[in-house]
Amino acid sequence: MSGTGTADRTTEEESGDLRRSLGFRDLVVYGLLFIAPMAPVGVYGTLDAKSHGAVALVYVVATVAMAFTAFSYAQMVRVVPLAGSVFAYARAGLGKEAGFVAGWMAMLDYLLIPAVAYLFSGIAMNSLVPEVSRWVWTALAVLVTTLLNLWGVRAAARVGFLVLAMEIVVLLVFVVSAIVVLARDGAERGWLSPLSGDGTQGAFALSAVLGAVSVAVLSYLGFDAIASFAEEVTGGSEKVARAVLFCLALAGVLFVAQTYLVALLDPTTSAEFAADPGKQGSAFYDAVDSAVGTWLHDLVAVSKAIGAAFAALAGQAAAGRLLFAMGRERRLPRALSRTDSGVPRVALLCAAVITLVAAVWAASRDDGMDHLVSVVDIGALTAFTLLHASVVGWFAVRRRGGPVIWWRHVLLPVAGAAITVAVIVEASGAAQVVGAVWLVVGLAVLVGQRRRPEVPS
Fold first, then answer.
1. Which of 193, 284, 296, 320 is within CB 3.0–4.6 Å of 189 for a Cys-Cys bond?
2. Average pLDDT in the 39-46 region?
3. CA torsion angle for 48, 53, 59, 60 (degrees, to 10)?
4. Contact 296, 288 (CB under 8 A)
């Protein structure tokens, strides 16, 4: 382990070591799997309506906004290369209590985003094979991906690479098909409208774009999971930092390209989407179906079904590492820090059980997806805010990273925190309530832990 002042952890002999077997490509695979290369498919219609047609611009702005968070992750993983990710960073930069709060809030994200992905996979498979209930497909997806994760991070990365390659191929097929149709038939909207608005809801409105950005940033949740594999990468934490930045940049390019093209193909205006919210969920598929053909519609749907399950695989793996790290620090039950041949199997099984219960419960309800989606962002955004504060705490307050570079160690993380707080404010009231309740429960747990005798490090 790096001797960079990252004390406050129990001995490796007691907790066990994770096996170092991941390279740069493996890290990028996990990050892109979790994000999903075609993440905008499900929210395209909503973003188009909210932004008055400037949907590609929304993703340009969202990528820049999330770049602040990626930069803070890259800074902290270099000096605190531990599996707990934001839990470890806040612990080092702000103190043990702040570290617990960051890890506690991140659990909402890491444990529920996989449940959403599993549910999406179950719904997609049920539409293809309606004789089998969607909760059965959901449970099957959890079982298969959990077995892969228990097999080991390297094996899961290899299978994940094949799935990611399939998703990229389908995306390329869409891009080529869209370009052919546009060259042959022309665009349904103005060529610059995905960047400036389609004009059907009035003049360009920056406030409308920023309102849509608060939804679009959810497409990026997952690139941060790369940092949770810091103790399993070969060649040092610099690879992790580069992978975080590369994954975000690549995702941004893919998101902007596909939303720009589908907006040009779409005969439905943003005003029509705004007037009829029922059209928003299937807007991407409908545009592809009418412009290219049902075959591409079905291909994209199958790709999304398989890709969602493996997005959950990456999320489950990251959740297991977070539980492992918090168990190692005795902030959660100590049993979670056990490893078997370098794999945190107890933590993974615990994450799998929680995710399975949430996903199957949601799959059995008509409003299950809405309940899950409404809360997953609050945990991540709160953790991101504490991440930015950790950069300031480590470098500028505690001055443990050498000379302070004010633009790098104060200005950028403060700007990043302002962005994440603004997105939290824009979140739904239900999500804010759930996040507040979860935070209060975490603070109660923290108070209870402080009353226990301190365990020597």
1. 193
2. 83
3. -170
4. yes
> How many CB atoms within 10 Å of residue 352?
23
> Alpha-carbon dihedral of residues 170, 315, 29, 258, nearest 10 degrees?
40
* Residue 405 burial (CB count, 10 A): 13
Q: Which of 293, 312, 422, 425 is nearest to 358 (CA)?
A: 312
- The token duo for 105 is 């809030």
Enclosing H/E stretch for 202: none
The predicted-structure confidence for 361-391, as pLDDT tens digits, reads as follows 877 776 566 566 656 777 888 889 999 999 9
The H or E element spanning position 237 is none
Provide the residue type at 44 as one letter: Y
Query: The pTM is what?
Result: 0.78
* ∠ CA 220-164-105, rounded to 5°: 35
Check residues 215 and 3 and name the one with the higher pLDDT.
215
Q: Give the three-class secondary structure for 338.
A: coil
Residue 267, judged by CB atoms within 10 A of its CB (0-12, 13-18, 19+), counts as exposed
Token pair of 33, please? Answer: 């799997």
16 and 149 in contact (C-beta within 8 Å)?
Answer: no
The stretch 209-228 carries a mean pLDDT of 78
Q: What is the DSSP letter of 269?
A: -
Question: Is residue 163 classed as helix, strand or coil in its secondary structure?
Answer: helix
Per-residue pLDDT band for 127 (boundaries 50, 70, 90) equals low
Distance between first and last Cα of the chain: 15
Q: Using 50, 70 and 90 to split pLDDT, how confident is the model at 260?
A: very high
pLDDT given at position 179:
95
DSSP state of 364: T
Q: What tokens does 16 get?
A: 């066990």
Cα separation of 259 and 263, whole Å? 6
pLDDT at 399 over 90: no
pLDDT in tens, 130-177: 788 878 888 888 888 888 778 776 677 777 788 888 889 999 999 999
The structure tokens 């999304």 sit at 304
- The token duo for 351 is 């994450």
- H helices of 329-428, where? 345-363, 368-391, 406, 412-426
Q: In this structure, how many other beta carbons lie within 10 angstroms of the beta carbon of residue 291?
A: 20
Q: Are 83 and 241 in contact (CB under 8 A)?
A: no
